[in-house]
Amino acid sequence: MVLTKKYTTSSRTFKHLSEFERGQIYALLKEGYSQAEIAKKLGRHRSTISREIKRRFIPKRESHTGSDH
């Protein structure tokens, strides 16, 4: 059983990706599927897949504060 949280606004309902879905995204990426194909297979919007990939795969830049220049 996969549990996901649901959030509602006046016109839309949002559902978090489950860990299982995240695993599917990465497995399908490794197999060469496009983001659009993955979205279709999982029944999610393309932007959801894109955001997840950006969050997990693109390294965060270190912020430089202070005067190290």
What does this structure look like?
There is one protein chain. The chain is mainly α. The chain is 46% helix and 9% strand. The protein has a two-stranded antiparallel ribbon with strand order 1-2. The N and C termini lie far apart (52 Å). The model has no long low-confidence stretch (mean pLDDT 83).
Short description:
This protein has 69 residues and is mainly alpha-helical.
| Unreliable parts | none
Number of helices: 3
Sheet of most strands? 2 strands, antiparallel
What gross morphology would you assign? globular
Written as H for each helix and E for each strand, in order along the chain, the element string is EEHHH
- Derived from helix and strand composition plus strand pairing, the structural class reads mainly alpha
Query: What proportion strand?
Result: 5-15%
Strand order of the largest sheet: 1-2
Average predicted confidence as pLDDT: 83
State Rg. Answer: 16 Å
Number of beta-strand segments = 2
Q: What oligomeric state do the depicted chains represent?
A: single chain
- Termini separation: 52 Å
State the share of residues found in helices, binned by percent: 40-55%
Protein name: Transposase IS30-like HTH domain-containing protein
Domain Transposase IS30-like HTH: 15-55
Organism: Koleobacter methoxysyntrophicus
Pfam families: HTH_38 (PF13936)
